Amino acid sequence: MECEQRLRSRLIDRWFRDEYRWLRGWVGRKVDCTHNAEDIASETFVQVLNFRDIFAVQAPRALLSTIARRIMFEGWRRRNLERAYRENLADHADAFHPSPEEQLVVIEALVAVDRLLDGLSSNAKAAFLHHQLDGMTYQQIAGKLGVSVSRVQQYMVQAFKRVYLAMEQP
Amino acid sequence: MSNLHRQIIDEAAQWMAILQSGRAGDEDLQAFEVWRDSNPEHAQVIARMSGAVALVPIETLRKLPRSAVLASVNSASNRREFLGKGLSVLALGAVALSIGQWGGLVSLPGELQTRTGARGKWTLADGSVLTLNAQSRVVVKMESRQRSVTLKCGELLVDVARDPERPFVVKTTHGQIRALGTQFIVQYSDEHTRLVMLHSKTQIITVSGQGLVLEAGQAATFDGNGVLKVGTALGSENAWADGLVEVRDLPLGSLVNELRKYRRGIIRLSAEAAALRVTGVYYLDDIDRTLHLLERSMPVSVVYHTAYWVSIDRRT
Predict the structure, then answer these.
(1) Which of A43, A88, B4, B138 could form a disulfide with B71 if both were Cys (CB 3.0 to 4.6 A apart)?
(2) So what's the ipTM on this one?
(3) Which helix (H) or strand (E) holds B218?
(4) Model confidence, pTM
(5) Contacts of A30 (CB under 8 A, 6+ apart)
């Protein structure tokens, strides 16, 4: 075990020496700020640490760029979510005053649900959330969205599938 | 994923939608049980699908205005679009960062930049002196009516040569800072711009058009919508120009963020260690020495996994 750990760390160390500069350059061409590129490249290697089948990897650059791409997407998506949420919240400022800690929890929750529902139409997302959060019946949801009840049922089918697949393929 | 498996997921989702409709009768339930028990994989997929639905953080989301939740999850194009179109979508999304030409590292005329671990100092044609902290970038434009420096990222210390005819303007995506002759620091992040006045005074004009005059010893934070905060400068903001970082009762996390600009490779910091408060003056040009110092003066352990890779944890 000890030995495998050491091999792992040696392998990652070698990748780091050989590929870090390349990865940072690769990321750097995609983002604007050097320090963002640095952060993303670093985070990529941190995630590589937890990559189980590291010895099976034939093309480290392909793995690294895939992970980096995912990190960039997550960051981009999170900023978007956060911005949309804050903008909308401004309209409710009188009713709702979350503390900074609460806000962090809220953003994490939004990121989680966004990941699960990603790819659905906005109506399907709305149907699923009204059902899960508000306990609305399909009938009520149909009224709210201005669609038929059987359409709502289709939305729910899509949503259940999506949520399942999102969990299967992190 | 096999077609068969795909079909089972499809059927399971149909069943879930029926069972959760609130209108499922005994017959539906019996038919569902027959389906579920006819194949162990059916039962497994249904169980996992229920588990996946349980991952929705219902309690937290329930407390929020529903419109805010819906607006957020519908705020941007989705993941597949992103992955499909490749990174040009990202560049557009990361937005606001760049004006027109994204992709940044293509060197533009008048562009000055520093990488990790190095500051840079330049004297411009008019005699003004720019000092860039590590990992920073500016674009300089000298025109007959105006001298302008656009801070694309990082941090800038500028010593403006006096020229009443030609104002000196530092621009960010959040607004601009106008000066005739003075010394100040501008720090840029995606979220906001911070200005620290060292000598004389300047005027901030945010993108939204809000104006504010700032005097020596003051500091202000603003974004595109307006001025967020005005306060007193700490007096240590320009320490980096001398290769030092000074912190007073700040979380270790913010000190380490400064150090990261100066050390190639990874510094991992555990959340417990990041929350510790720290006060002191530290060297930027010898990060390993600084880390050693931290280890001796604080309840943290500093472990070098490789030369590039350092972990800082709270000592137990």
Answers:
(1) A88
(2) 0.72
(3) strand B218-223
(4) 0.50
(5) A72, B87, B90, B91, B103
